[in-house]
Amino acid sequence: MFKTYRCLFNLASFALCSAAVEAAPPVNAGHLYLNGNIAAASCMADPLGSGNFNIGMGHASFDDIGTFDLPNMQRAVTILIGVVCPAGATGLDTVHMTFRPEIAGSGLDPDEPRLVANTGSASGLGFAIVKSDDTLLDFQAEEAIDAKLKVVGDTATATLEMRIAHIRTGAALIEGNTSGSVPFLLTYE
After folding, report:
1. Which residue among 12, 29, 72, 112 has the highest number of C-beta atoms inside a 10 angstrom radius?
2. Fold classification of 62-188 (topology level)
């Protein structure tokens, strides 16, 4: 038997609680079996090791901004990110770059959660990350940008290729500056 407490809260943050003895709910037991591999690879997404990149999006007009389902790639900015693994890369062949805008950075756009939110003065748009096959990365599907590692000895290198595009969110477009950020994580296999 265990006790369940039922509490009533008021605005002054006082609680009135009553204890009731109830039968324990049914329990299903099991195990979590955890396994994986640890690599000695120490990789950097840029030669300075800061991992921060400033991407200039340039100037765009309303006509240059497509939708998630019909993006305009003419104004998308190409980004090539070099990855260097100076040690411990033996046995690895792929690097994956995943993004977590729902955790940090400017977040997900409230009108189109498949986009990085714009925190600038412009509105009605967000930022999309475009894969090398011209499809937009869907953060909700936890997609990644992938590249094959070129291993020579114990060192590996790769180039992650993507583009960034302004994308309409469905809200009215209002001119102004655009700004946003999104954290990324590199994983290897």
Report:
1. 112
2. Immunoglobulin-like (2.60.40)
